Amino acid sequence: MQAPKAPPKKRDWSWRSQAFRGLLYQLIAIVAVVSAVWWLASNSMENMRVRGIKSGFDFLSQPAGFDIGEELIGYDSNNAYWRAFLAGVVNTLRVAVIGIVLTTILGTLIGVGRFSRNGLVRGLCRAYVELFRNIPILLQLLMWYLMFTELLPEAAEPARWGNVFLSKGGLTYPIPVWAQGFAWAIWGVLAGIVASVFYRRWAKRIFEETGKGRSMVWVPLAIICAAGILGWALGGAPTAMHVPKQGELMVEGGGSLSPEFMSVLLGLTFYTAAFVAEVVRAGISSVARGQSEAASALGLTKSLEMRKILLPQALRVIIPPMTNQYLNLTKNSSLAVAIGYPDVVSISNTAINQTGRAVECIALIMAVYLTTSLSTSFFMNWYNNKSAIKER
Amino acid sequence: MSETLNYQFIESRPAPMRTEGFMPWIKSNLFGNWQSSVTTFIVGGLLLYYVPQFLSWAVFRATTVNDADACRVAGVGACWGVIKEKYRLIIFGRYPFDEQWRPLIATLLMIALVIASCTRALWSKWLVVLWVAGLALYFAIMHGGVMGMSVVPTDRWGGLPLTIMLATLSIIFAFPLAVVVALGRRSHLPAIRTFCTIYVELVRGVPLISVLFMASFMFPLFMPAGVTIDVLIRVLAGITLFAAAYMAEVIRGGLQAIPKGQVEASASLGLSYWQTQFKIVLPQALAMVVPGLMNNFISLFKDTSLVTIVSLYELTGSLGLALNSDANWRPYKFEGYLFITAIFFAFCFAMSRYSLWVEEQLSKSKLR
To answer: Nearest-CA neighbor of A153 among A270, A243, A259?
Structure first.
């Protein structure tokens, strides 16, 4: 018996054919978008020609001629524009990375605090979230900046705790003098990390074979610390420190954090922590009630229940919105321009004012943020896949 | 088998502990176990130490005289006189002083329109007509040039009216755009899907400030020679395009949650694509994402403060404008910040409460 043949595909190019209309709509959309882009591009070309604005990225190799308040890459005003941009990118990343770490810790604590048995802690955490997420981040940054620049003591007579000074000039603290011993210490820490990975594998195998649990956090941490200290001691145990001293007008020496950096960091951290706390709270309350009842039935304490039962399961719900919060923090760090922290936006702003190449500078800002956003979400997607439920 | 059975009364058990009321609540919530008690003492001690200090600064030692010298007296706390002295500049920005009744009325009109739109009893097609008429009246009052009112160019608009206007208008314009983009991202036509995806991902990957820079620095270059567009409109367009991308993602989440059977059922009933979307899919999807949309609206309201950076003096900017140039009052900027913080907080908090109320209404309909 012959299998019935599929009816021949009809190519119906009439107006009533869905395929034809789909094609037509797409064609219209493409033509509209392309002609809009072409129109805008030709307009701006024409305008730039009329106004005598040069275009192109060649200005990046010219000397920038402006100073940057704080930078980590050894930039000075004779350097080219691209180095100025690089300094800005490094500053942005510095505040974003430290901010993400701090905000995760603070936000998780507050989010967990909303499930505390203590009514006072619950109330305070709730008040924190309501207060900090309902005030614009720009306003919070400006207020931190005002506090650091107006309400702190003058740089000539700073507040002092031991060798740490706090004044309008910023936070100054002792830092160790770089010596060979610290390179040894870094190698020690790296060796410790490798050793603790092996230790964890071994501990896991023992656990699966015998059911005897071993510490998976504290022992590896101790291994890493011990290896670091060992490396430091082998390298000659350098203890010399740059200690800041009270100078005539300001505190001199030591390491320091500028008021701008601290305002941006604290502003972003406190603001984003309120959102992270909400994400954590939503994640924890998404865990089925039976889980926490089962944990109490097994006699787990409240903190063990949180650490071993609720948080690991909540993590799967938490990660995607947490990624969004990290990206928001990174993007909000662009507001540093309002208080003069030299991040990539504020460097571009200066560059626009000096060279008039608005299109190129804004394109650079966008490229920087797009790269960070896409790579962060790429990494978080990878982590999300890793921690997703593995169904066997 | 004879056995005398001995009946004995067992002693009555004590009545169960009271679990409701004030004292039991205190006991279980503040002194449940020893850790909780220690926490209560530490946190309570800190609160008892700092809250009175703050209250003493903000209320008991504060002065409300609008005289900068009274604030300089040693031991005086907050100087609320600065608000009393400058509140018109802070709230209305650079709008001409004698004409400031106009933004007041216009903004009250806009708030009334918003509140009307939030009220369930008034949800009908007439709202659209009301909005068109209301916005026309709003711009007539703000801009002037009719009914004998002097013309006030848009660069003089500022303060709270500008904040409210930017937030309201960008929500109104961004929402339909977001619906279209969200539908486009789920379209089966590859070209349209690609355009919508690129737009959303591009906008969500960059900070708002770069979009605003684009609106204020680059946009003039895009227009043909001789055409200039008001900076307020450029910035409004920038915020709208920015907000629409975020809203589109929220709406797409709702669209994805609609079971495929709904679309298939409406196709079998012979509904067209647009009929399906508008009568079947969108009503269900939008109801699902109301909390997410409200979050978007709140962050949009807060984000309007960024226009300060491109020199439009909304509330944050007008505070700087009012105080930076006045050496007498400049030291009391912190009080000024607290004042506008309170305004922003009040608006955002009201919006989040409204969102909770809507959520409750919707979950009621689900319980049925």
So the answer is: A259
